[in-house]
Amino acid sequence: MVTGKGGTGKTTVAAALALALAEEGRRTLLVEVEGRQGIARLFETEALPYEERVIAIGPGGGEVAALAVDAERALLDYLQMFYRLGGAGRALRRIGAIDFATTLAPGLRDVLLTGKVCEAVRRRNRKGGWVYDAVVMDAPPTGRIARFLGVNDEVAGLARVGPVHHQAQAVMRVLKSPETAVHLVTLLEEMPAQETADGVAELRAARLPVGAVVVNMVRPPVPGLTGGALAAADRGELAGVLAGAGLPAAGELAGPLLAQGARYAHRTGLERGLRAELDELGLPVRELPMLAGGVDLAGLYRLARRLREHPW
């Protein structure tokens, strides 16, 4: 599962991770649970249906299938699976009862979404093997990830017996298993880094498996320039160097360049401090570069290659 503060690029990281996992002959399922169709836009394809379909080929020929989980459809599946109420469930949907129920009880929506994903994790093919070698969930933001994943624990406690209880327990067995990990996406900025630290604390308190921290959109260093070199330069000296290089209005350029150098020094110092804070979380930290041209399909494959360079 991939979570992160809004704006950190968690959907992009989830998509790149799915591609990275789809190695030779391996099948990966990429799941969206927020209804934003962000995965479809990243892969430049039409809107994802409730049914799973292949949207990309991973490195070496593995496949990436995708699924947009819809709470209403998941509830219909649930009613049919445990109560054989397929026809009655469709009637409830026509009169709006299902949408009313999932809106009135948001925890129910989370139970349905996680249940559908865990069903895909446990699904086997006719030969008895797993249908998918890996499942990647583009999960809700960090601020509500612990609540989203822990709601089945609450449901299992409320419903002591019956299919609801057993389903909730089965989901939590998957979520808390050693094969599951919640990866947190952040930026080298104060608010995302703090929310990441808070999210790690909440996940650990809920005894949910925390994976790695992925620092996204890392700016490349300026070649040959240390953090304070330009900021500490003398304005007159810099103007002389610029004039010697044949640049017009060298005196006017020196001031803005020194100001930019000061901003660069401040930013690199801040990033060093944030990196140290992230290291203190005691988790693997992976960095992904900022893509100058924005994220397109080629950029996703580039990020996937970067993720494959370091074992998780």
Word description of this protein:
By secondary structure, the protein is α/β, with parallel strands linked by helices. The chain folds into 2 domains: 2-219 and 290-308, P-loop containing nucleotide triphosphate hydrolases (Rossmann fold, 3-Layer(aba) Sandwich); 222-277. It is built from 12 helices and 8 strands. The protein has helices at 10-21, 38-42, 71-83, 86-94, 97-104, 106-122, 142-158, 162-175, 190-205, 235-244, 250-279, 297-308, and strands at 2-4, 27-32, 53-57, 63-68, 134-138, 182-186, 210-218, 285-289. The strands form 2 sheets. A 4-stranded parallel beta sheet has the order 1-6-7-8, sandwiched between helices. Strands 3-4-2-5 form a 4-stranded mixed beta sheet, sandwiched between helices. Helix 1 (10-21) crosses helix 12, helix 3 (71-83) packs across helix 6 and helix 6 (106-122) packs across helix 7. The radius of gyration is 24 Å and the shape is elongated. The mean pLDDT is 85.
